[in-house]
Design a protein that fits this description.
CATH architecture of the largest domain: 3-Layer(bba) Sandwich
Number of strands: 21
Helix content: 25-40%
Number of domains: 2
Oligomer: single chain
Structural class: alpha+beta
Strand content: 25-35%
Shape: globular
Bound molecules: flavin-adenine dinucleotide
CATH topology of the largest domain: FAD/NAD(P)-binding domain
CATH superfamily of the largest domain: FAD/NAD(P)-binding domain
Largest sheet: 8 strands, mixed
Distance between the termini: 51 Å
Number of helices: 11
Amino acid sequence: MTNNGSEISTTIWDAIVIGGGPAGAAAAITLARNSRSVLLLEKRIKAGFTLGESLPPAAIGVVEHFLGSVEKDIGVGITKTIGITKTKGNVSCWQHAAPQISDFFFTPKGFGLCIDRTNFDQALRDVALKCGVSVLYGAQLTGCRRSENYQRWDVEVSSKSSKQTYHAKYLLDCSGRRSVVARALGIERQCHDNLFAYAQRFVSASGEDSGLDKDAYTRIEASPEGWWYSNRLPLANTSKSTERLVVLHTDKDSSAAQQAATPSGFLKLIAQSPHISSYLNKFAYTPIGKIKGAAAGSERLVQFCGEGWLAVGDAAQAYDPLSSQGIYKALNSASSAGQMVNYALAKSEQSPSSENDDQFFLKRYAHEQEQLWADYVQQHKYYYASQPRWLDQPFWNQRGSSTDVGSESQLVRGVL
Ligand SMILES: Cc1cc2nc3c(=O)[nH]c(=O)nc-3n(C[C@H](O)[C@H](O)[C@H](O)COP(=O)(O)OP(=O)(O)OC[C@H]3O[C@@H](n4cnc5c(N)ncnc54)[C@H](O)[C@@H]3O)c2cc1C
């Protein structure tokens, strides 16, 4: 116990992972599967509703790597307990007002996934726990510093009842867009736009003329003030009702953003988007719960890792939801970061006296992250520029002109 009342633990963990979202849980699992000692800190005691539920077919392999087979268990096993449904593809009103279908049937897997996000994240943390990770809920990183003499981190953690200092050889910043470790180290976070998401859940009861909503497509629609998507949520479907999520993406400082933040404004805006609103009307959907707002712009750290630390998932780089790549990228980067830390630890165990053992692995990780960002930026530009309507509107005007892309491109949320 120190004079300011905080407790000091003497254990030195191989890694402390900050953040129990998909990136944090997956990084912890990867390290624990390599017999590394891992402490996972999650500031929330209980997870609430989280946005982000579509996974493209390409993501299924990495989901199965961490959670087990989804295909053989569709309808039972993990898919039922977590809440996972197969999706058929995207229906998008992007280049034209008329809907275009992009079918997952033509991919090797043949389907994508729609997940119950709260349960999905919890399932990943449960796997981490089973692999031997120590998981602390309600534990928030409040500070960290490098103790050069001991080549380790001292990490200050606050919970409701105590303040603790923990020690680790590596820190993995998986704290999402807050990137708490990187910020504590003074690493700049660059925001490339001001995109903000406003999400509203809708419920439809059975007994309507058209029956229950059985839609298995993600619906995307461009509008003058931004763009919308809607998914039928997996767990809320019963024999009596279905739930749908409808999300508007617009600039945070726009008048549409102010409007979308209020229940009546949100309904007025969606009424002007004919494709999704006709779907809501067809099944007599009504709003349920509060409108949830979330930052959704393209952001990255100027530096993805450094001596003894790595940023992973949204903490390293966060994407526009048009990509539908956030969770896929979080799981992949977590797997890579976990392996790099494991190799670096193994190298320092083999030759304890040599300095900067981790440089090779950190450079490799940084290179992967740079490559990911370069690909993302190119595709982001392409897809925004392929929407030729409303170029006179500030939202679209800022995001590119249609002159530098082919005349016929098909929007695939999950390919961007
Ligand atoms: C509107 C919207 C729609 C989206 N749709 C999709 C989609 O359809 N498909 C898709 O793949 N992605 C989607 N995404 C993106 C996706 O949700 C993110 O990419 C994903 O959550 C990133 O995972 P992560 O683990 O890196 O970060 P997060 O999920 O943000 O997890 C970070 C965790 O760190 C914890 N934390 C923060 N600070 C601290 C601290 N100081 N101490 C301890 N813990 C801390 C948080 O509580 C949180 O649990 C969407 C995002 C938005 C905004």
